[in-house]
Amino acid sequence: MHRILWLIVAVAFVVGAFVPASSGPDECPPRDTRVTAPYAITGYWVIPRADRCVTQRMVEAIHTIGGDTLITFGPRFNAREDPEFAACRVDGRPCAQVPGKEIRQIYTYTASEEFGKGMLRCPGLERRIESGGRAFYRLSLAETCGERVHDLVLVATDGDGLGNLMAEAAAYGMKVFPGLPAAAQREDKPWEPDHDHTGALNAFTARVLADYRARFGASGAFGGVYQSFELAMRDRARKDPIIELYTAQHAVVADALPGKPILVSPYIDARRGRGFPPGQAGDGMEDIAATRAGAPMAIAVQDGRGTGKVPVHGAHEAGAKVVPRLVPVVGDVSNAQAYYGATREYVEAAAGKVPDGVELWVNVEGFEPTPAAGECGRVEPLPLRGRTTKSRLDQQIMASGPHAAKIISYGWDPFFTCQARYDTPSLADDIASGWRQPIIVNAVRQDRNGRAGILVEGHNLRGGSLRFNPQGAVVRQEWHSEGRFESAWAPYVPPGSWTSITATNGAGHTSTSPYVIR
C-alpha cells in the first residue's frame, strides 16, 4: 500500500473564487478554494509528492468534493540491509562508515520529506548528504554525540512531499495526519513487529515528532499522526505484540505532541474460517483504545468491502448469493455461508464500546477485490485491485450507519483518479456529478403528533418523498431537520416484515440504493 503507481487525473470543475498561490518563478495556478460537491467521505489516504503543483492539484480535487483530511503512510523503519542506500557516500566512504565510531546497527528509512535543521544534532556525524543524484540524511540514535558506539539511521528522500502537503492543506483549511515511522517487521512473521528494534524505533519516532513540532507546530493543518502498523480489531491476546508496539509508540506521541490525536485504522474480517464474528469488534476497540497513553484517538474501522473480507448487505440478504465482485474471494455461495456478518454489525459492535477520549471513524475501502476486464485500478504493488462505483460507496456509507463521527477512505490514488480511457470519468468525477443523491444511514419507526411514521437520517434528504417497497407507496416528507445528519419524517406504516426505503429529495435526486428495515 506504500508504493502505489501514481496516476494524476484532475477532476474538472468550473473556475472561480480563487485564492492566489505563493509567488515565485515556478508559480502554480491560482487556488480554487470552493467546495462544490460535498460528499459524505471527508478524508483520504494520499501519497506525498515532491512537486508542489502536483500536490496542489491533488489537494484541490479532494477539497472540492468535501475532503478536509489527508492521511499518509509512515515509511518503514527498516532493520535489514537495503541496496537502495549503496549510493549514499560521504567523503569517499559509504555513509554507514563513520571514522572513529563503532557502528552497531544500521537502519534505513525512505521518506518523502525534508527534515528541519534541528534534526542534525551532532556536527560531522549527523549530516544531510547529496550523493548519486539523491538526498540522504545520516542520523544517530545515541543519547550523546560523544559516545563511541552508535546506531545509525540512513534516510533517503525524494523531496519535501510532506512539507508541500502541509502547506497546501493549510491553504485549503484541511488537516494532515502524517504516518508515524512504521515498525520493523519480523522476518518469520512479517505481520508482527520486531520488538528487538522497538527501542530504536521509539528513539527515532521521538526525533521525527520533535521535528514535526518545530516545523508544523504552528500550522493549523497539523491534525495528528497515523499509526501505520495494521492489526485486526478483534479480541487480542493478553500479551499481544502489536498492542505492545502501540502502547510503546503511542506513549512517545503523547509525550512529544501533547493533545495531538492518534489515528488508527484496524481491519475487520468476517470470512468464516479465517475471520471473527462481529461481537469481537467491540473487544478490539477497547484493546486499541487502551494504548493511547492519554492522547486523543480516532479508531477508523476498515469496512472490509474493498478486500472482500466483509460484505455490505442488509440483514434481509443473509441468505442471498454474494455479489459477483466477492465471488473470487469467498466463492459462489450465500452471504451467510461465506461470512459471519456484514459491515453494519461490526460497526454497531464497535460503537457500543467507544470509551471517553476516542472517536469511532469508518474507513470505507474505495476499491474492488479484483479488477474486471477494461477497468482501471491498482497495478502495483500486488494484489491487483479494481475501481469501484459511486453507488457502491453509497452502500458502504449506508452500512456505516449513524455511528461514525467521520468517514474516510483508502485511497485517493489511483482508485478515485484513474480512468478506463482518457474520455471516461474517474470515480472522483462520478462523485462530483452525483453528490446530491440522498444516502440514508438509519431509519426507525417514529410517531409524531399522534401519527405513525418513519424517520430517516442521512445525507441530502431535504424535501421530496420516501418510496416504500415492495408496497410501492410514495409518501411526501412532512418534517425535516438539520444536525449531524439530516432527518426527514413521513407518515407511513409498513405492512410487511421487510420494507426498503428510497429517498428522492426536493431537487429531484434519488438515492442509488434502498435502505431496508423490518
3D structure, described in words:
This protein has 518 residues and is an alpha/beta fold. The protein folds into two domains: 43-76 and 154-434, Glycosidases (TIM Barrel), CATH 3.20.20.80; 439-516. It contains ten helices and 26 strands. Strand 16 (377-378) and strand 17 (385-386) form a beta hairpin. Helix 1 packs across helix 2 and helix 3 (198-216) runs parallel beside helix 4 (241-256).
List key phrases describing it.
disordered N terminus; DUF4434; elongated; TIM Barrel; 22% strand; 8-stranded parallel beta sheet; 4-stranded mixed beta sheet; alpha/beta; 26 strands; 518 residues; 20% helix; 10 helices
**Radius of gyration, whole Å:** 25 Å
Q: Provide the CATH superfamily of the largest domain.
A: Glycosidases
Number of domains: 2
Low-confidence stretches: 1-25
Q: Give the strand content.
A: 15-25%
Which structural class best describes the helix and strand composition?
A: alpha/beta
Largest sheet: 8 strands, parallel
Q: What is the architecture of the largest domain at the second tier of CATH?
A: Alpha-Beta Barrel
Mean pLDDT: 93
CATH topology assignment of the largest domain: TIM Barrel
Number of strand segments:
26
The number of distinct helices, counting runs of at least 4 residues, comes to 10
Outline type: elongated
Protein name: DUF4434 domain-containing protein
Pfam families: DUF4434
Domain DUF4434: 161-416
InterPro entries: DUF4434 (IPR027849)
